[in-house]
Amino acid sequence: MKAAVITASAGILVAVLVFVLNQLGQARTERRQAKLDRVNSQLRDLYGPLYALVDVNERIWEALHDAGLPSKRQREHSTEWEPWHTWVDRALMPANIKMRDLVLNHADLLLDGELSPAVQQFCAHVTSYEVLLSTGTSSGGHALIRHPGSEYVNYVRRSFRRLQTEQSTLLSGARLR
Questions:
Q1: How many CB atoms lie within 10 A of CB 40?
Q2: For the segment 55-80, what is each residue's pLDDT rounded down to a tens digit?
């Protein structure tokens, strides 16, 4: 009788242990899947489009420099390089507005849950320049807030790569199971 009780108790203990381990494994898998879903959303809805738009604007910027874009001071005090204003009004600013709107519409997807200073400055710059465009003074006016330059570009590129790495890690962990 004693052996039967020990055998039954051992069987119950093993069943409970298997159940608990199964529940823990399932919870870990669900957490990983939730994290993967969030990273996928961050890449698809925010950082992927931002990365593409930043890359396009940077290529245009480099091409303008290669084409002989005068210094900022020369552009501000001269109308000789009229193509600059066309490029700003027709290419750079529309992309900047899309980027700002992406950030504002998907702020819940930002890394670390907050706007970086570079992103804050970029959004404020775009809005201040948008005011100039609305008044028709973009060719002779100054944006109230300066563009953060490479700090913003580097933030977007670094964040995109970080999320891609995280996505890859989460996917490879899911494949192992």
A1: 15
A2: 999 999 999 888 887 777 766 666 66
